[in-house]
Amino acid sequence: MRVITEEDKCCGSGLCVIAAPELFDQRDSDGVVVVLDETPGADRHDAVRKAVAACPAAAIRLARQ
Amino acid sequence: MTTPHRILIIGASLGGLSTAEALRREGYDGTVTLVGAEPHLPYDRPPLSKQVLAGTWDPDRAQLPAAAQLDGLDIELLMKQEAVGLRPAERVVQLRDGERLRYDTLVIATGLRPRWLPGSRQLDGVHVVRTLDDALALRQTLRQGPRLVVVGGGFIGMEVAATARSLGVEVTVVDPHAHPLAGRLGGVVGDAVLGLHRDHGVRFRLGQRVSGLAADGNRSVVGVLLADGSVIDADAVVLGLGSIPTTQWLKGSGVPVGDGVLCDQYCAAAPGIYAVGDIANWLDVHSGRRRRVEHRTNASEQAVAVARNILADHDKQTAYTPTPYLWSDQFDCRIQCYGWADEGQEVHVVEGDPAGRKFIALHRDHGRVMAVVGMNSARGMRSHLGALGSTADPVGPSRAQVVNPASTRGQTAD
Ligand SMILES: Cc1cc2nc3c(=O)[nH]c(=O)nc-3n(C[C@H](O)[C@H](O)[C@H](O)COP(=O)(O)OP(=O)(O)OC[C@H]3O[C@@H](n4cnc5c(N)ncnc54)[C@H](O)[C@@H]3O)c2cc1C
Ligand code: SF4
């Protein structure tokens, strides 16, 4: 599974970081999302899904590969 | 409770679609039917006053991701279908075309409709921004370079003003208050937003009420009439007067309606009937108050709560007690708010400077931190979220600057 984010959708809420701090961070300058692990292991898929659901801007997607 | 066989969701936008999606994610395998009045696949509204209006996004980019997965999620979507009546005793929703849909559990997600000035709907050149079609129509108008008057300086009005001005349009904002975004966020943000817009050349008529619109013989708008007798010439007008919960189809159904659909703490309005999103007015057990939130994050979060409560045994339902989040983008500025900002709260700036349009402030009610509000400080906000709900002063009084003049605590020197 691959984590894809769209920077121009992200509103810098940080809610993905709160949901999955080991997978996401925010840029210092404008708070836009930074993916820490683009291909997380199966043990982290639940955390990614939580972040996808929490994102207020629909800026995070999951792709098969 | 026995699991319902057929769940019917009226309103196919963020709240409705997110509920359907959450039901599937929670493992529900019965029938899920979404009914929506609009002719488009479900889309997101925040870009309508921003990227879609500016023309930087194709409307397709605003489509909600789950809208592309309806088949995979086995969600039936009936588009261009409007619910016109509800009979809870028979568990039936009546559609405008005469069809009657049966349900075991009903979710009401019909959101809001914008307020118009009396008689303004019939005039050419008068716009509201609630739907994709509204945004595309306004975009078309803005391309002609009109003199635009925005009536109402709330979030949508100010975002439209910023987007229009960025396209080179001449913009005037009229609002009865002393600054835009009056109300919940208060004067600190309002004054900063006023300065931001003025620097970009937006004009303001503040402290002014609109008494009506002026039209020519072709029923095209030509001006906005103010209560003091003056007129602002206009080729186009955007009404940002707020919105009204879309509850008229529930009339006579017995579902309790007031400012929205009145729900209990589990977001249930009646046995087997739930409400979600902008229309839901629920009992917040943390504060003991009724709440209704018109922001995107609430709709998606409440959808998950409603889906879980639908599927939970009655004694295992969970009260909905969110920490709301909202944002607004205007020019190069981003405003964010976590928590329950409200009028009359004391505003303590804890980082940065409102005059520089980069700051973070804590909103307190009787000392308790109710909201963290910031401008252009996205990354710094998270470190203050822990203060929400607490009465302690996390930064120490010497660094906090009390900026609400109405505050009884007085000014604290820096
Ligand atoms: C221009 C604009 C900009 C916004 N920007 C932001 C922002 O920056 N940040 C933020 O936090 N929030 C923002 N919001 C608010 C956010 O979009 C809403 O909170 C969200 O759309 C609520 O979703 P909902 O599903 O509850 O209601 P809605 O999105 O209003 O959806 C209700 C749906 O129900 C349908 N419907 C109504 N009546 C019937 C009926 N009788 N039968 C069938 N269907 C019916 C409607 O056609 C509509 O599609 C913005 C809203 C707008 C309009
Ligand atoms: S949750 Fe979404 S909008 Fe918020 S920072 Fe993460 S990607 Fe951006």
UniProtKB/TrEMBL annotation, chain A:
It comes from the Bacteria. The keyword Lipoprotein does not apply. Keywords: 3Fe-4S, Electron transport, Iron, Iron-sulfur, Metal-binding, Transport. The keyword Magnesium does not apply. SUPFAM superfamilies: 4Fe-4S ferredoxins. Its cofactor is [3Fe-4S] cluster. InterPro entries: 3Fe4S_ferredoxin, Fe-S_cluster_ET. Coiled coil: none annotated. Ferredoxins are iron-sulfur proteins that transfer electrons in a wide variety of metabolic reactions. PANTHER family: FERREDOXIN. This is Ferredoxin. It comes from Streptantibioticus ferralitis. The lineage of its organism: Bacteria, Bacillati, Actinomycetota, Actinomycetes, Kitasatosporales.
Automatic annotation (TrEMBL), chain B:
Residues 6-303 form the FAD/NAD(P)-binding domain. Residues 325-384 form the Reductase C-terminal domain. The keyword Ribonucleoprotein does not apply. Pfam families: Pyr_redox_2, Reductase_C. Coiled coil: none annotated. Residues 387-414 are annotated as: Disordered. Signal peptide: none annotated. PANTHER family: APOPTOSIS-INDUCING FACTOR 1 (PTHR43557), RIESKE DOMAIN-CONTAINING PROTEIN-RELATED (PTHR43557:SF2). This is FAD-dependent oxidoreductase. The lineage of its organism: Bacteria, Bacillati, Actinomycetota, Actinomycetes, Kitasatosporales.
